[in-house]
Amino acid sequence: MTRLGTRVALAGLSSFALAGVAPVAPASAASDTVVSITFSDATDGQSITSVGNAGSGTTDQSVVTANGGALTAHWSHIKSGLAARYPAYDGTAKGARAVVAVTNAGSTDVLSPGSAAFTFGADAKLDDASTGTANDNGNNLVQRGLATQTAQYKLQLDGPRFSCRVKGDDGTLMVTSTLTTRTKRWYHATCSRRTSAQGDSLVLRVRRVHSDGTRGPVRRTISATGPVGSLTFAADTPFSVGGKLQDATTVATPSDQWNGVVDSAFLRVSS
Q1: Cβ neighbour number for residue 173 with a 10 Å cutoff
Q2: What is the pLDDT of residues 89-140, one digit of tens each?
């Protein structure tokens, strides 16, 4: 949801920048995929109780649950392998919840991009029923930090449209796609914070993923350039996949639980 003090841009249906906003060139610096969650070690139909990180970051992963929630291994049509089916929608206060938590395992906060350019996202599809009460009023796909905290990056699907929010010590940017998504269809969504001498920009890309694994055209959003600055987190702040966490062991209320299937969540930071 849009908050006061947030710069917001709405995507056009072409791959061009919004009027008056120059396209942002891809970052030339090398990038490091520090988080890569693919659920490839799961067994079809069984509960997912442990999650691996194929990225370079030194991290721990866990499945945080509430009210009997669980993740189940589900065949992914994105590519060979499995994905994670999240709990079905339940808008009550005691609805089933399950979220993947990624936390730092070493002394370095590998989940914080600081002032660097970075990209995060996932492949996902949503169930027909996914939102409707104050206990579960959104579908958060990938995030770190809460809106009330000093830093946050978040990719979500509120209603039928993906949006992305990044908050740093100098300001906040938010972008929203005009692509109207459909339930039970796979999408590849990524959000990128780019840096340049002119300031920070936020780019949201959403692609339809077909049953053969090929991706449709990019719907590209570029925010107005503006200050974001460095993202500084408490080291124990979790990187979450499929919902909102209060901390590394507690599902937040409201949970913004993802109701559907998720695959290939990642965080990539420029070096």
Answers
A1: 24
A2: 999 999 999 999 999 999 999 999 999 999 999 999 999 999 989 999 899 9
**How many whole angstroms separate alpha carbon 142 and alpha carbon 34?**
14
For 229-255, the pLDDT digits (tens) are: 999 999 999 999 999 999 999 999 999
Beta strands in the chain (DSSP E): 7-10, 31-37, 59-66, 72-75, 82-85, 97-104, 118-126, 140-144, 152-158, 161-167, 172-176, 187-196, 199-208, 219-222, 239-241, 245-247, 250-251, 260-270
Instruction: Give the span between the Cα atoms of 226 and 91, in whole angstroms.
Output: 37
Looking only at the bridges linking them, the beta strands covering 97-104 and 239-241 are antiparallel
User: In angstroms, rounded to a whole number, what is the distance separating the alpha carbons of residues 217 and 220?
Assistant: 9
pTM, rounded to two decimals: 0.88
Between strands 7-10 and 172-176, the pairing is: parallel
Residue 132: Cβ within 10 Å count = 10
How many beta carbons lie within 10 A of that of residue 268, not counting itself?
Answer: 20
